[in-house]
Design brief:
CATH superfamily of the largest domain: FAD/NAD(P)-binding domain
CATH class of the largest domain: Alpha Beta
Distance between the termini: 50 Å
Helix content: 25-40%
Number of domains: 2
Number of helices: 11
Radius of gyration: 21 Å
Shape: globular
Strand content: 15-25%
CATH architecture of the largest domain: 3-Layer(bba) Sandwich
Order of helices and strands: EHEEEHEEHEEEEHEHHEEHEHEEEEEHHH
Number of strands: 19
Bound molecules: flavin-adenine dinucleotide
CATH topology of the largest domain: FAD/NAD(P)-binding domain
Structural class: alpha+beta
Length: 444
Amino acid sequence: MRIIKYETPVPVTGSYDVVVCGGGPAGFIAAISAARSGARTALVEQYGFLGGMATAGLVAPLSVFTYNGEKVIGGIPWEFCERLQAMGGGLIENPLGNVAFEPELYKLCCQRMVLEAGVELYMHSYLCGCECQGGRIEAIFIDNKNGTEALEAKVFIDCTGDADLAHFASVPMQSGEGRPLQPMSSYFVLSGVDTSTPRLQQAMHHNRQGVNCQCEEIRSELLAHREEWGIPEFGGPWFCTTLQPGVVTVNMTRTAADATSAADLTRAECELREQVFKMEGVLKAHFPEFSNSYVSAVAVHAGIRETRRILGEHTITGEEYVSAFRYPDSISRGAHPIDIHVANGPAQNVTFLKTPAYVPYRALYAPGFPNLLVAGRCLSADKTAFASLRVQASCMGTGQAAGAAAAMAAAQDLPVDGIDLPALIDRLRDFGAIIPRFSQPPTP
Ligand SMILES: Cc1cc2nc3c(=O)[nH]c(=O)nc-3n(C[C@H](O)[C@H](O)[C@H](O)COP(=O)(O)OP(=O)(O)OC[C@H]3O[C@@H](n4cnc5c(N)ncnc54)[C@H](O)[C@@H]3O)c2cc1C
């Protein structure tokens, strides 16, 4: 490849205690958590709205806050859900603790909470690099309408989903990064749907513990007529209510792709858009609920299940996860099944948890990188543990922990692995995070 050197002076336009990169479920909660902990905080987001996969990807519902009726993710993430419900934009589905939502009100609710916390927002700003001294990040570079700008911070949090900042800083990643990766899927919205039928009513409400919420009746028909109807690769289908009459979000397209490759991502976006309209035609032609339906929106961004994850101080293994290993530095939980969609084909391997799992603080940072934390999809977990932790509630839980930890490290000029752990856990409990006081010592 021919290399051209591109050098330009970059103005430092902001200096903060904490800068969070990526405003998805992990990032907007991390920013609120850092700001409420007293840190001067900025949040950088490539789009003109927050919510990440939930809004740009139309990924619904928000999973999963409870296990058999016992709440496991609390604090700021739960406050967000209650506030969204109070605004008429959320429906907390019990006993599973999934939250169906209306995407535009989701955007509004997180934006309000972020701004009320005093976070400075950099929207339409794309993280494109960083300046490092050894493993220490001095500044990040963002591209926006002003050109390229630099933001300095004492501590940075990578919530880009794809671990972009960690990648730019040369943090080692999980070997093989979980290949083959789980497939990408574009969600779409169908309007004009007869949502009153019993099978659609059941499929739209993801509220049953220990059950895959895909619409089994429609899936069997699709599998039986796959060749005859010319159906491409598909998953589910899963339908979710947007709380508006006659409207459902649909998750059924899929393609194997690596979203950290620009070429692959471009191909996937184009292929998935074709699939959306193909699937809409199939549903309309063969299932009476959809006979008057039409595509009223396609996700701005294809849904990304899996890309880069850091090789952290500790990598959560599937074995630890399913046995609910109690780490001394547990800072959040997970209750979603281990949910692995195969790269090619309609299969999905789901293992339901017997008990909710724990997340250690050490999975949020890498040795040798004293001022970088990660949260959400970029955390250090193997493919199995990640396949549960990737859902929104768990991402929010790690965001809450990373935000509070970053604020503590910034306030005391400490490396992220040097903060007072009991004090972090106390702060998280004060927020409402559910971190049990073990009656016996944590698992050795
Ligand atoms: C098909 C599919 C179905 C799913 N189903 C469910 C489900 O039913 N329930 C559930 O809870 N979860 C589900 N998930 C998982 C969940 O949506 C994501 O894993 C979760 O949103 C990850 O949160 P995050 O904050 O880590 O990352 P993201 O949601 O990906 O957010 C990352 C944010 O960073 C921004 N960003 C990225 N790179 C840059 C950059 N370089 N510069 C600036 N900004 C940047 C993005 O725009 C985005 O706002 C599903 C995912 C997919 C793809």
